[in-house]
Amino acid sequence: MDVLWGFLNQNLSGFSGLPAWLQTAIPAAICGVLLITFMALGPILYVYVETKVAGFMQDRIGPKRVGPHGMLQTVADAVKLMFKEAIYPAGADKKLFILAPCLVVLGAFMSFVVIPFGARGVTANLNVGIFYVVAVSSLSTVGLIMAGRASNNKYALFGAMRSAAQIVSYEIPAVMTLLTIVMIVGSLSLNDIAMAQAGGLHRWFLFRYFPIMPVAFLIFFTAGLAECNRAPFDIPEAESELVAGFHTEYSGFFFSLFFLAEYTEMFVVSAVASVLFLGGYLAPHPWLQQVGPLPLGWFWLWFKAWGLVFVMMWLRWTLPRARVDQLMYIAWKVLLPIALGLVVIVGGLVLKPRTAHGFPWDRFVGWPITLLVVGFLFTAMVRALLWNRSRGRELGDSGSPSPVQVWR
User: Fold this and answer.
1) How many angstroms separate the CA atoms of 190 and 128, rounded?
2) Which member of 17, 94, 321, 374 has the greatest number of CB atoms within 10 A?
């Protein structure tokens, strides 16, 4: 917002003569409009990508009829949901029924305020950024409980209670892993955490105190999956048990708000994980940080966050859903003890002068591991594409329509 204020002050005549409150309100309103637009249009792209990814992984076609390659399918779905009738169940608390999805969306939206898309590309550079993200994300829990309670439906109430228990349980190990980052940096600001990883890929916190911090990253990412209600932790809306869980009675626009919040929360969790462990807006090498006068910080954060969102989609169509008892067991008896151990270990290492800045071999593990992972993923994708093409030729020889041609 400071960058936008400086731009308006230099290029808009008379801006400096406005009252102080108006000089603050105008940049804040512009940032708010940009963030709301990004949050509203982003899930349309996420849903389309997930349907295509799911189709590819399961040897299906995916959307193909509306627009080229089915690209307008999610736009058509969004328009349809906007004009569908909102049905209120008998005996429901109408005010809370309407307020619940709005509160869930608000909790997902408010986290964008402190996510840094560049050294100066942050709406509000709060010195308690991590604490702010953890606090506002809890609004979604309140909204889900409110939706289940206001629906006057037992399935919705069961789903809401499951969601509350799941989110509260997995927030604890997630916060424990955040403490390891805070102890290393000595700050709660997300921008300070990103800047502490400057210098290249080998300085990212994912490779600090190797192999301790990779475990912290896995715990945080797993807890993020649970907070987003993504598979294998989507038990609050298990259709085989609870019809649709907390949003069973919702339809039309209010129903779409829950999915808007879910996909927005996926990006928020991925972006925060990128800032904490993957350097945020910093490039793998300083030479790649900008092209001429054009800074690329926004691109690197978007690229890393989208990579983690893809992993979330990948896991959804790979792993089976966990039972309620398994879900609670993972949180309380697996992730929490490991997270507590990480806090103690990292705290001790930070206090020792010889290991305050990491292990001696940390600088040598980042690039080899990254190249191995990228090579493995590239090989897996190429083999999957080749198999898909051979499968298409087999179907073509048998007279059946080729899914490869539709996929293209």
Assistant:
1) 8
2) 321
**pLDDT given at position 1:** 57
C-alpha–C-alpha distance, residues 182 and 146, integer Å: 33
Query: Distance of CA 256 to CAs 33, 105, 260, 266, Å?
Result: 20, 10, 6, 15
What token pair was written down for 209? 């105190």
One-letter amino acid at 167 equals: I
Q: Hey, what are 257's tokens? A: 């708000």
Which DSSP category does 111 fall into? Answer: G
Maximum CA extent, the chain: 75
Nearest Cα to 346, choosing from 152, 166, 208?
208
- Contact (Cβ atoms closer than 8 angstroms) between residue 176 and residue 340: yes
pTM higher than 0.90: no
Confidence of residue 242 (pLDDT cuts 50, 70, 90): low
| Partners of 295 in beta bridges | 290
Question: Tell me: the pLDDT tens digits for 1-13?
Answer: 556 667 777 777 7
pLDDT digits (tens, 9 = 90+) for 195-214: 999 989 999 999 999 999 99
* Residue 294, Cβ density class (10 Å: 0-12 exposed, 13-18 middle, ≥19 buried): exposed
Type and span of the H or E element at 295: strand 294-295
